[in-house]
Every structure is written in C-alpha cells, then in structure tokens.
Amino acid sequence: MADMEGIQRLTALLRADVLQRLRAPRVWALLAVLSGAAWFCFPPASSTYMILGVGGIYRGQYGSAWIGMALAMLCIWLSLLGFYAVRGSLARDIDTRVWQLLAATPMPRAVYLLGKWCGNLLVLLIVLAGATVAGLAAQLVRSEDRAIDLIELAKPLLLLALPLLSLTAMCALLFDLLPWLRRTAGNALFLVLWVATLAVTQQGLQSEQQRAGTRWPGDPFGVSVFDRTAHERLARQYAVDAAPGFCLACGMANKQPRMLDWHGWQPTAREAAGRATWLGVALGAVVLMASLLDWAAAQAGPPARGSATGAGYSLRWLDRLLQPLRGTAFGNVLALELQLALRQRRLWWWLSLMAAWAVQLLAKPGVAALALVAAWVLSLDLFARSGLREHGQGMGAVVFGASGAARRVGCARWLMLVLVGVLCGLPLLVRFGIGNAPLALAALAVILSLASWGLALGALTRSAHAFELLVCALAYLAIDGAPALNVAASPALTGAVHVALLPLSALILWRTWPGGRHA
Length: 519
Known about the structure:
2 domains, two-stranded antiparallel ribbon, 519 residues, mainly alpha, single chain, two-stranded parallel sheet, 70% helix
C-alpha cells in the first residue's frame, strides 16, 4: 500500500510539473529549433554539406537505423540547450517556499526529487520526439530508404540519447539545488563543463588506445560508440584502415557523399553496459541529493549582505557621484538603477574587476581585449536579469503603472547597463581611445549591443538563460580569436556587426517591453 501511495504521489507530481513546464515558451522554442535542426541533418545527396559524417565524405543511407543514430548525435546539442530549458523548477519551489508546504506532507524527499528529475527528462524526451518526427519526414522525402523500422530507429535513441539526457536532467536538478549555482554562475559553469567534457571525449577518440580498438564505451555523449561502429563499417565496405574521424556539419565542397551500409546497428554488451552505467549514475545522484534538500531550502532564508536581493553595500562615494543626476525625473530613476545594480556587487566582484582593469591597462591589445570580455562576463547577471526584475517580483503593475513609467524605466535601465559595460572596460576605453580608436569604438559598439540584447532577450523570453548561454558561447569563441566579442581580433568587423544588430534588438524591445508600444 505504501508503495502504491508513493507511485501515486510521484505520478501526480510529475504530471503537474510537466504541465507547468510546457507552458514556458522556451520549451516550445527549443522544440522548434531542434526539429528544424533534425530536418537539416538529412540534406539531399546533391547538397554541398552533411551534418553527421565520417571523414567528411562518408555517411549512412537515410534509413531508420541511420536516422536514429544521427538524432542520437544531435542530442549532444540537446544536452546543452535542454539544460537551460528545463532548469529552474526546483529553484522556484525553494525560492517561493513551496517546498516548505510539500515538506509538511508524507511525501519522501527522494520521491519529490525523482518527480522533478522525471519531469526534466520527460520534457527533453518530448523535444526529442519532435525531432524524431522531423527525421522520419526527412527519411520519406529523401527516399533513399523509405522502409521505416521503429526498432532500429529506437535503439540508438534509447541506448545513446536516453542516458545523456538523463544526465542533463540530473545536472539541471543539481544546479538548482546548490545555492551558488542557481543563477548566472551555474549557467556559465555548465557551459564550461559541457565544452570541457566534449573536448576530452574528442581527444580520447584520437588517442593511441582508441586507435587500437580498446575504446572506453562510457563517454557520456555516446560518441565512441558511433565512432567504433562507423570505422568498422568503413573497413569492411571501403577497406579504409585509418580512422578519418567523424564530423558534425561537414563541408564537402563539390564532392558526392559515399554511402555506408547502415541498415542495422548492434551495440556490444560492453557498450550497452557503459550506457546503462551513465543512466544509473544519473538516477543514483538524484537519490543522493535528497539528503541535501532541507539544507538547500534553509539557504534560501533572508538575503545576505551584498546579495542580489539584499540591501547591499552603502557605497557613499557612489551617492556623491550620482548627486548631479537627481535634478530630473529621468536622472533620479537612472541614479536609483545604478545604485541598485552596483550596491549588490560583492567584494569578490570589485576585486576581480580591478584585476581586469590592471590587465586592460598594462597588457598587449589581444590580452587586454580578453580581460574586457572577462569583465563583461563578471557582470553577466546584470545584463541578463535586469529586464526580469519586475517579472520575477510580480511588481510590473506597480512599477509601470504611471503614465510614461515603462518608457522612462526602460531607457534608464538600458543606460545603466551601458554605463556598467563602460565601467567594466574603462581602462581599455581610455587607453585605446587615444592610441587605437577603432578598437575603442568596437568596444563601445559591443557595450551598446550587450545592453540592448540583454534587455531584449529577457523581455522576449522572460528568462535570463538565452542571453547567458549566448554570451558564454561568444566568450568561449573570443578566447579562440573569434571577433564576436574579441574587439582586438577585427575591430571594424566586430563593431559593424554589433551596430547592424542594434535596430533588431530595439524592435524586439519595443514589441516586448511592458507598455513599450503604448508608452
């Protein structure tokens, strides 16, 4: 009887949790993006590209087995994007004290967390189901093999995709549970961990041990399983002994793809055990988290000094600096926005900013530009969450109720973000404004873009995750020398791109900011 009651509680919690998540626009946006990506994973044979291939020229015939394998590899990206789509449910229960009500019921902690984990996983599987429908449609349209074999389609999805998505669902729960990972820091850290794990996995495929055939079948993405199968079929069908490496989004120029016989897929027992191990790791971690639930809920007490919602530091020098703005209504709002933003910064933020300032002032242009990117990332929570303040606190009707208030607050908040961006790069702007004007102008263009897109994406998605993921990805590319945020790589190109995108962000803000079209 007790077991049946536990199952009923779990089922009821899961149903309510999934229905609530499916109301979020970001889930449907992810479903649309991944379904579209699934369609483009299977271009016609005449295309000059392929999404999943081996050696840049070999791919499987578009049958059910290859469709399933390609979708399982597409889940590498779903494991990243899906994390940002599903996280937040547990954090919301803790922040709103809903957990205190649930804790008073007979529901065990482990059952509650299992329900949350299953909710995360089910949402990811719904997104994968949409991508699968798109993949099957591509199979029928491309007509390379119109016979649909649901078993061969499902095998890679269950063996490769399911364990990976279960890990993503577990990580979303863990990052919601730990207080210091619930917001921007956790979003940035997950991207770093995802990139590092993928890099280690790819490096492992190039090792001598992998080339000798003694592959470790337990990498979380399942890439080694696909890699082994593809190279075995290459050796059998085309007598290719060397391992040319698999690729995602392979460029083919004017070459025609060469087909691999991929009508079925039989994983080894060792590979199946490795995949089951990852599924067990995810499930076991969720059960172990139950012992931390009460502690995590207790950490959501009154805000600490300097926290994002507390009173923060006094910063009397800031009051004196902002005093000239107090003469007008708009200036007063701007001063309040700056005080609210800067007083919440913790001591470590100011120390880190000073370190970034020193690098900007003394280092070579390339290193100084990376220090500027680091300073912007330090302030990522401000850029991503400033447009969500009233939405999260339920104060929109009060703040924007007066005539012209929405426009006044929106403009003041945008200007506040611009000034914070300038503060992050003040030494670089002064230094290169004198000796390297194109670089300084490019930095100003990026600052305007960060402020505009931070507010626009926040107002559009009602979430900080999209902008945080975008900036973290661009910061990673900046380290590799890409000019998106690295103003030293190509100042003219960087500035031109960001300036060109400003009208689009302004249009989104006009359409989505509270009262924007009527202010």
